[in-house]
Design brief:
The complex is a heterodimer of chains A (168) and B (282).
Chain A lengths: L2 H4 L2 E4 L4 E5 L4 E8 L3 E7 L4 E7 L8 H6 L5 H14 L8 E6 L12 H15 L4 E6 L5 E6 L4 E5 L6 E2 L2
Parallel strand pairs in A: 1-3, 6-7
Antiparallel strand pairs in A: 2-5, 3-8, 4-5, 4-6, 8-9, 9-10
Chain B lengths: L2 H8 L7 H9 L7 H9 L2 H11 L13 H25 L13 H17 L7 H10 L2 H22 L4 H9 L3 H11 L4 H8 L10 H16 L17 H5 L3 H13 L1 H11 L3
The chains are: A alpha+beta (168), B mainly alpha (282).
Chain lengths: 168, 282
């Protein structure tokens, strides 16, 4: 059975947005991660999961926009994702964290070096907070679509022309 | 692949309506009158209806209902009307580029529309005499992918191997087929009698230094890159595009402004997606 038919409730996450749910019939999907990062979390005991799609690493570089749309920034969005999951019963020590995205243009001068900076921000934040990254599919030059299946906590990644694969 | 080989393929592609091409020719010309644009649009009832659909979309940001071309002109002005006509027509054309480039049905138009919206954000930071040309070039930049798609689908293995070796996508196309989609797009634009500056901007959007007016091509390139970073319209090419070292410096834009532009573009994505899905024929 495909994921699309197995889930009754597909939550779509846009850029600079997140979804957190305890609905086992749901899946959470975000499309077209270019340089952006998708952070997926899942507590297998509480059965709470969430997905954040952030675009830029740090809000302090863009204070006005950070105030208006904090989830666009990793340093502001990631803590909010975890807090929203904790509010539904997730526990930090049990929570499985996976990330995908962070692709880069061919950019020798580093003018558009957002993908790598996005990934480094995620890794730094997790390390500072004692959270282990269970799996990652980052970098390269491919766009990715990420889907978290709430019934199982499995995370799937697809890229144009490539078969759907589970991120383990 | 030569121009002669491509010509029969060009003939099969849904062209922009003649009226739209005439509007493109009038873009940014000071002697273009509102009445002349309105009469052009009214000649084509389908275009008239499509213009009203776009005019009433959230993307145009008009709070009042627009029920006629005259009302659109009054509320949007001449330059916005030109944008409206080109946007209304492009959805029917930008439906190709599927199997070979691994794009979904909506992707080419969505990418073009997002790049066009990005161009408005960029142009707002610069002094540009021809914003309508920039908008149209951004919207139509990838028409060459429609022409090359079947070719890529049949013979794309070599192309994908080159991309896997970190060759930038246009160079990989050039190596695999002897032509890239920008050049093919320029030829297609020429065969549709697009104005010469628009042909040049489409043909040179991955190599602005080849253009007589590199500024327009540079803005198109920047807007393209902004969209790709956000995964908008990425297919087989992904993000495999070279950022020229001096792209931002040549435009007088700082790297911090790139972040601001990215956020501003992201804030418009819901409107872009809405219009893109409405404009593509099921």
């Amino acid at each position: 059975m495909t994921l699309a038919t197995a889930t009754a409730n597909r939550l779509v996450v846009g850029i600079g947005a997140m979804e957190v749910t305890a609905d086992p019939a749901a899946s959470i999907i975000t499309h077209g991660l270019g340089s952006c990062i998708g952070v997926a979390i899942f507590d297998p005991v509480a059965r709470v999961g969430g997905l954040l799609h952030y675009m830029l690493p740090e809000g302090r570089e863009h204070p006005e926009k950070a105030a208006a749309t904090p989830l666009i920034f990793g340093d502001l969005g990631i803590p909010r994702l975890f807090k929203a999951a904790y509010a539904l019963g997730a526990v930090k020590q049990r929570t499985i964290v996976k990330i995908a995205g962070g692709a880069s243009l061919i950019d020798g001068a580093g003018l558009f070096n957002v993908g790598k900076r996005n990934f480094l921000l995620a890794r730094k934040l997790m390390w500072k907070n004692g959270v282990t990254l269970t799996a990652e599919d980052v970098g390269g030059a491919v766009s990715r679509t990420v889907e978290l299946e709430m019934a199982t906590g499995r995370l799937f990644v697809t890229s144009p022309g490539e078969p759907r694969r589970e991120l383990t | 692949m030569t121009r002669d080989e491509l010509t029969p393929i060009f003939d099969k592609i849904h062209p922009l309506p003649e009226v739209a091409v005439r509007v493109l020719g009038a873009v940014d010309r000071d002697d273009t009158t509102v009445d002349s644009l309105a009469s052009l649009i009214r000649q084509d009832p389908l275009l008239d209806a499509a213009c009203l659909r776009v005019a009433n979309s959230p993307l145009m940001g008009v709070r009042h209902t627009i029920d006629s071309v005259e009302r659109a002109i009054a509320l949007l002005g001449r330059r916005a009307l030109t944008k409206l006509v080109v946007t209304a027509c492009a959805g029917d054309t930008l439906q190709g580029g599927g199997d070979g480039y691994r794009l979904e049905r909506c992707d080419l138009f969505r990418h073009g529309l997002a790049a066009a919206v990005a161009s408005e954000l960029v142009v707002g930071r610069l002094t540009i005499a021809n914003p309508g040309l920039v908008y149209s070039a951004c919207l139509l930049q990838d028409i060459g992918k429609i022409a090359l798609d079947a070719w890529v689908a049949e013979r794309g293995e070599a192309l994908h191997e080159l991309i896997d070796d970190d060759i930038p996508f246009p160079e990989a196309e050039q190596l695999a087929f002897g032509i890239d989609h920008a050049t093919a797009g320029g030829w297609l634009a020429e065969s549709w009698a697009f104005p010469a500056p628009l042909v040049e901007a489409i043909a040179c959007h991955h190599h602005p230094e080849r253009a007589a007016d590199p500024t327009v091509a540079r803005i198109v390139q920047l807007c393209d890159l902004l969209c790709l970073m956000q995964g908008i319209g990425c297919g087989a090419d992904g993000l495999a595009y070279q950022v020229p070292d001096h792209l931002l410096a040549n435009l007088g834009i700082s790297s911090n402004e790139v972040g601001d532009l990215s956020v501003d573009l992201a804030m418009r994505l819901v409107e872009i997606d809405s219009l893109a899905s409405e404009s593509i024929t099921p």
